[in-house]
Structure formats: structure tokens, C-alpha cells
Amino acid sequence: xxxxxxxxxxxxxxxxxxxxxxxxxxxxxxxxxxxxxxxxxxxxxxxxxxxxxxxxxxxxxxxxxxxxxxxxxxxxxxxxxxxxxxxxxxxxxxxxxxxxxxxxxxxxxxxxxxxxxxxxxxxxxxxxxxxxxxxxxxxxxxxxxxxxxxxxxxxxxxxxxxxxxxxxxxxxxxxxxxxxxxxxxxxxxxxxx
Length: 193
Ligand code: SF4
What we know:
The chain has 193 residues and is an alpha/beta fold. It has one domain: TIM Barrel (Alpha-Beta Barrel). It is 28% helix and 21% strand. The chain has 6 helices and 7 strands, in the order ββααβαββαβααβ. The chain has a 7-stranded mixed beta sheet with strand order 1-2-3-4-5-6-7, covered by helices on one side. Strand 5, helix 4 and strand 6 form a beta-alpha-beta unit. The longest helix is centred in the first third of the chain and has 14 residues. The protein is globular. The C terminus is likely disordered. The structure holds iron/sulfur cluster.
């Protein structure tokens, strides 16, 4: 089967919310490399895929035809989008014609040049199963996405983990400030949770 036909997407939605200042299609990829106790999207992480990249392309074309080749932002979310085997091919499918955004936990850094316009990096904690060298991994992620126009670190307020979050944010404070990341504390998780 062609990889574009594989059902690796739990759901996708078109919206005005997920891409700064743009109409967007957000793809929620199945699967994740972490197991956060408060994941709101377990059904996406553990669920079967229902849609393929070809389904997304079809929807995108319909919207473009309706709105006279309107430029749509493509948002890669989940679950964790970077774990997809064909992630680079998926990105290459859209990169030339669309602004791209990613919602990621930052554990896997893509092995191609950053081509995202917007990134939301979600901070995690030990109980999620983060690696020992989490701070170094996050620092690498901060640098990988540094050219993005919009750069956000999403910290979901979970009382028991505030000390742990504070530690990571303090360790990375200089990099966060120098690279221009905005730290957002919220009750809503953007990266699939
Ligand atoms: S919260 Fe995010 S990183 Fe954690 S399991 Fe859910 S999708 Fe994965």
C-alpha cells in the first residue's frame, strides 16, 4: 500500500484556531512516544487511524477550490506526529505550498531542516516517561525550532508537577529568553492533549 493511503490519522479538522492568523487543517496522528497520566487524547494516542494523508489532501483541495486557492496552514498534531515512519515524506507533501505548524512533545527532533512556521512544544514530566536527559533534549528542540515565527512552550497547569516544570523552565530560561519562546501556562493542551 502507498504510504499516503495508510490510515495513520485519527481525525483532522479545519479551523481558525490552531494556526496563528490562518485558516488551518489540523491532523491528529495516532500514537505517542510518551504515556502521560493526564493525556486528554488517549483515544487518539491508542486509537486506530481513520484517515490517510490522501483524505487530508482531498479535503484541502475542496477548501481551496471553494475559496479560490486560499492558502491553508497545515498543522501536525496528535498524539505525537514526529513518530510517524514517513514523517519527512508527509512534511514534503505540503511544505512547498503551505505554511506548516507542529504540536510536539519535542522528544524526537526531525532529521531534516526545520521548515515549520509555528511550533508548540509541550513540557512533560517524569511520570510521562521522559528520558533521563530531558533538559538536553528540550534544549535541542528549542534550537531546532528557533527559526519558527511563532514559538510557544505549553505548560499545562497540573499542581503536582509544578515544581518539576519550574525546574525545567529555570534550567532552560536563558535559551528560552534568547530564542524568543513564549511560555504559556494553560488548562488546555494544544498538542493533542
Ligand atoms: S499528553 Fe501528549 S505527549 Fe503525553 S501521551 Fe498525550 S499526546 Fe503523548
